[in-house]
Design goal:
Blueprint lengths: L2 H33 L2 H22 L2 H12 L4 H36 L5 H27 L3 H20 L8 H25 L11 H35 L2 H17 L1 H19 L2 H41 L5 H9 L2 H8 L3 H6 L3 H54 L7 H25 L7 H21 L5 H18 L11
Helix pairs in contact: 1-6, 2-4, 2-5, 2-8, 2-9, 3-4, 3-5, 3-8, 4-5, 4-8, 5-6, 5-7, 6-7, 8-15, 9-12, 10-11, 10-18, 11-12, 11-13, 11-16, 11-17, 11-18, 13-15, 16-17
Length: 513
């Protein structure tokens, strides 16, 4: 298979794997929100808020360092790869053990602070799950770096499938939330042992009981630049939950969790587009004058098609949030639809964020991004402490939105100035067409509901409404000529060229400094 063909295969395989994992987590939340009370669901949701934080601490940015470093050495230095995998594993093992122990010790203290039943025992099992999950993550990062995408996909798909099976057990026998987390922990331990044997057989690990402290120091020096943005980004997105859970009831916290779930679902196009754009921008940023035109094209096309995706989604979610929440999660979570109406317009700024912070990362400006993330995180903490006690869940939402929008505007302007980027002249008119087509389609969908008297909020009716809305939106976009086929051809040309050229140099995105 050619290099371009293999790259395309790996990209598609990774994309499918991530979508399956994402879908599995959504299905799990859907089932738990229906089978358990809001208080029990809050215990599950808040446990994973802690797990996410301690995963970042336990990984310490080593995972991203391993991917980059292994990818750069995989064809030229097999012993170097072996050393990276081995020493990285030792570091991850130690950090995971420390983070898991801290979470286990803290579990009773956390239980005494928050009025969420069974949270303490759930966190105790979560600490075990955290330990093995982080070790598994190390192996998955190795598989990505070495281009063994089949192993990466196998690991992700099997683990998420088995998690789903545990949740499906609830239809036979009712499991408590701590029991579910205990089974997750057992599952993660078995998962780790299987893939540890695979890694040993592939001869990626040697000299397990000695340490190369100079080499480890090099890994940590690079990892800290990956670690700090991860911590700051976690604070930006999740710190408000720790304050919010302290001032509202578990039931209200469960409603906020459902709000975040829906926002995460509709954010999937942003994740996919950012993963697609990043390597191409990195390549053309390095080409400077030669790549400047392509950087401008990618910037404009990402802005154009990103908002082409998100504006219709935003209008649809805003107009029909009641139907969406009630059809999927039931009337108990109705208040989530109100919070979504406040949250949803932020998604368009998140899409634009691809052109800000992501472009700065691609331009090898990590210190600037870390600095801006740190300032944004600081203001998120301040606003959370001030606003949440005053206006509760609305305060939690505003504490995320206000600082992050300011961050996006600043980074966007910096990228434009650094690269002398100008928006296409037709951009303003195109955005008006996107907005007009989406709003008009929304009203057509609303009149459809009124005319046929559709008041039964079911998944079937929601599916029909979704198909009708996006079908009508596409029709209006076509009639207003909002979609330019010559721009699609330009985007395809850029992607093909960057794939062809970047695959000639495996060290293109690796910086040893």
């Amino acid at each position: 298979m050619s290099i371009s063909g293999r790259t395309l295969k790996n990209f598609v395989l990774t994309l499918i794997t991530e979508i399956i994992g994402f879908s599995a987590n959504v299905i799990i939340i859907y089932i738990l929100s229906h089978l358990y009370s809001q208080t029990e669901f809050a215990s599950y949701s808040f446990s994973f808020t802690f797990i996410s934080f301690f995963m970042i601490m336990a990984n310490f940015g080593i995972g991203s360092t391993i991917i980059q470093s292994v990818a750069a050495k995989k064809d030229q230095d097999k012993e170097g790869v072996q050393k990276l995998v081995t020493e990285g594993f030792k570091l991850i093992f130690i950090f995971s053990a420390i983070a898991s122990l801290i979470l286990f010790i803290m579990s009773n203290f956390v239980n005494s602070i928050y009025n969420i039943p069974d949270l303490g025992i759930a966190l105790s099992f979560a600490s075990i799950y955290l330990f093995f999950s982080n070790l598994i993550l190390h192996f998955e990062n190795v598989f990505l770096g070495i281009w063994l995408y089949e192993y990466y996909a196998l690991s992700k798909i099997i683990f998420n499938s088995l998690k789903l099976m545990i949740i499906f057990l609830n239809f036979i026998i009712r499991l408590s939330i701590p029991t579910i987390l205990a089974l997750y922990a057992l599952l993660s331990m078995i998962h780790f042992l299987i893939f540890f044997i695979i890694v040993i057989k592939l001869k990626f690990i040697k000299k397990m009981f000695s340490f190369d402290f100079k080499f480890i120091q090099r890994i940590l020096k690079v990892s800290v630049f990956m670690f700090l943005p991860g911590v700051f980004l976690y604070i930006i997105n999740n710190f408000n939950q720790f304050v919010l859970a302290f001032v509202i009831t578990p039931s209200e916290f469960a409603v906020y969790s459902i709000t975040l779930t829906i926002i995460q679902i509709v954010s999937l196009p942003i994740i996919i587009l950012s993963n697609l754009v990043f390597p191409y921008v990195s390549y053309y940023m390095l080409k400077k004058e030669e790549g400047g035109k392509n950087v401008q094209s990618i910037f404009n096309l990402t802005f154009y098609y990103g908002l082409l995706i998100m504006i219709p989604v935003t209008i649809f979610i805003f107009m029909f949030s009641d139907q969406i929440v009630i059809s999927i999660f039931g009337t108990a979570y109705y208040n989530a639809s109100i919070y979504i109406k406040v949250f949803i317009f932020y998604l368009n700024f998140k899409m634009i964020d691809i052109l800000g912070g992501h472009f700065l990362w691609a331009a090898n400006k990590p210190k600037l991004v870390v600095k801006l993330y740190g300032i944004t995180a600081l203001f998120t903490v301040i606003l959370s402490v001030i606003l949440i006690p005053l206006i509760f869940t609305y305060g939690a939402i505003l504490a995320i939105i206000i600082p992050h929008i300011a961050y996006i505007i600043i980074t966007l302007n910096k990228v434009k100035k650094m690269n002398n980027i100008q928006f296409y002249s037709c951009m303003s008119l195109s955005l008006i067409k996107f907005l007009f087509s989406s709003i008009l389609a929304g009203f057509c969908s609303f009149f459809l509901i009124v005319y046929f008297n559709i008041h039964n909020y079911s998944l079937y009716n929601l599916a029909l409404l979704t198909v009708f809305y996006f079908g009508i939106t596409s029709l209006f976009l076509f009639l207003t000529k909002a979609i330019q086929f010559n721009q699609i051809k330009e985007l395809i040309k850029i992607v093909r060229e960057s794939l062809r050229v970047s695959n000639k140099d495996p060290n293109l995105f690796y910086n040893d400094n």
